[in-house]
Amino acid sequence: MGNNKSSFWMALILTIIIFAIGFILGFFLETYRSNSVEINLMNSEINLLDEQVRQQVMGDFNVNCLDSKESTFNFANSIYTDAIRMEDYDRSTKFSDTLTLLHQRYDLLRMMLWDESVQIKKKCKSDFHTVVYVYEYNSENLEKESKQKFFSNILLDLKNKYPNDILLIPMAGNTNLVSINVTMKSYNVTDFPVIIIDEKKVLSNITTLNDLEKEVFGK
Amino acid sequence: MLINFIEFVFFFYMFVGLYMLSLFIIIFLRNRKNLFSYPEAKIEPVSIIVPCYNEAESIGEAIEGLLALDYPRDKIEIIVVDDMSKDNSVEIVNKYTKKYKNVKLIINSHNSGGAAEPTNIGIMAAKYNYIAVADADSIPKPDALKKMIGFLQNDKTVGAVTCSVLAKHPNNFIQKLQAVEYAVIAFGRKLLDLVDAVYVTPGPFALYKKEVLVEVGLFDKKNITQDIEIVWRLLSRGYKARMCLATSVYSKTPNKFKAWFKQRIRWSIGGTQTLLKYKSQVFKNGMLGAFIIPFFAFSLFLGLIGLALFLYLFVKRFLVYYLLTKYSLYAGSSIIHMQDLTFAPSFLNYFGIVMFIFGTLFTLLSIYSIKDRDLGDHKFFNIGFYMLVYLAMYPVILVIALYKLARGKYTW
């Protein structure tokens, strides 16, 4: 029996080892994910810089507006996919705030994309609509979380219906970035989620998909 | 670290759960060769007490089972104590008292509403110093007394001995699930025995020393799980309880959900009663305070933590998706997109998987170590169902039991 008393310590050590393995695995998993998101982010940043250079070139050499629109849309689609993956990773991140920082960098990138789209529309008189969806990052309010999921779904429906007419830019509005804060202030936005359509209309409530279509296309 | 309160509770739950499972597995690995060993015994007389209330269906078979024990007939007396049964239990027992000299019947003057009082009456009337307490619906294996009594004879500090309680003829689904459960409990109890932590000598068949029972004040009539309480009292007075895995008693299990549920509520209430009675002993009195009370409390309440966590996450998700569905249906938009179906595992899932593997390993070890168990057919389905659904009902039962205990509305 006396010999068996040491089983209590052995079990404690085994449990601690299992937990340590879990924490180490978790740490490596998160590091791997952060690295992979960062690589995507760097690619996106290069793409955006490329786009900015392209705009300067366009001013000088009258580059095709259609190409410019297409590349902006592709870029928006690409960072939209990255955003979804990041949301998944975000939910399972426990060890560090690296992903939160990367999220901020992505939001900045989306802010720049929004600005780029405004420039393109001005320069090329493009007929696409910019739909910026501003949400609250890591919302703990259940009603808000439901509303945000609903906004996200209905906007995705709209985007799927008009893939070439709508530039959908989702971004977090509460990540303490001065550029986003100032922009939201200029639209008198104090609470999220909101949808900003073509830099003119600000919607904080949607009732139906048809109503949303009317707001976007003015039909 | 971004771990919030809910995750902290999850880690606590996982840590304690994994610790318990690791402990059981380590004890098994270190003692696997002598799990079934039992000490040499000499034949000494034993009084067997059978408390009985409305047991007409099974009392005859139970007495037959006790008479069939592989033990000299003149070294056994069987005392059935009837608690004022309303059926013809007394008539049936009388047939045996006429036929066998060593079968006796005592009729309680009133219905006590529990097993403790008739058992105490039987103990006081018993001639011999070794007392076996048997349920009126259980049948011990013929070798039970021979294999169990040595534990009491060879160690003065041992006051009680139990054996494997296994399900008798599991026919329907709920009985087969209980057959799995009983095998797991029996195996776990033997492992606890190896660290001096047996915390119950279940009613179906247990052996005691009369002088020790009298010394500690017999069974507690106020406690509805007197078979748990008596062991805690023995331990608190410096005695030990042991477990003999080499023999078994087959006990009738409830064959309907309602009866099963009522029995489990009773067990949970009795367990909690005992825990409350002995709460001041925590971290005192050797293994009782150092391990049994915390282990018992965790066994009871760890499930509650799991249930609370599950309900919190479930209700939260449910509310979000309920509102989302409501908005989406009105708007005519999609409720769900493919992107919602993605899953990024976190290290929390790792702990869940490890816990599941350890739990499965322990359950399988238990079932395959207990040789005498009868699980009926569809074994693997039953084991899976036991692990995934049956065990998940424990915390629900505990919540109801606590509610009844708080309101004082419980009966045996």
Please, could you describe this protein's structure?
Chain A has 219 residues and is α+β, with helices and mostly antiparallel strands. Chain A folds into two domains: 8-126; 128-219, Glutaredoxin, CATH 3.40.30.10. Chain A is 69% helix and 10% strand. Chain A has a four-stranded mixed β-sheet with strand order 2-1-3-4, with helices on both faces. In chain A, helix 1 (2-61) runs antiparallel to helix 2. Chain A starts with a helix and ends with a helix. Chain B has 412 residues and is of the alpha/beta class. Chain B has one domain: Spore Coat Polysaccharide Biosynthesis Protein SpsA, Chain A. In chain B, strands 3-2-1-4-7-6-8-5 form an eight-stranded mixed β-sheet, with helices on both faces. The longest helix of chain B has 45 residues, at 287-331. The mean pLDDT of chain B is 91. At the A-B interface, helix 1, helix 2 and helix 4 of A face helix 1, helix 10 and helix 11 of B.
CATH class of chain B: Alpha Beta
What series of H and E elements makes up the topology of chain A? HHHEHEHEEH
CATH superfamily of chain B: Spore Coat Polysaccharide Biosynthesis Protein SpsA, Chain A
Mean pLDDT across all amino acids of chain B: 91
| CATH architecture grouping of chain B | Alpha-Beta Complex
Number of helices of chain A: 6
Strand neighbour order, sheet with most strands of chain B: 3-2-1-4-7-6-8-5
Report the uncertain regions of chain A: none
Distance between the termini of chain B: 50 Å
Named CATH topology of chain B: Spore Coat Polysaccharide Biosynthesis Protein SpsA, Chain A
Assembly category = heterodimer
Question: How many beta strands in the DSSP annotation of chain A?
Answer: 4
Number of strands of chain B: 8
Biggest contact: A-B, 47 and 46 residues
Strands of the widest sheet of chain A, in order across it, are 2-1-3-4
Q: How many domains make up the coordinates of chain B?
A: 1
**In this structure, how is the largest beta sheet of chain A organized?**
4 strands, mixed
SS element count, helices of chain B: 13
* Approximate strand percentage of chain A: 5-15%
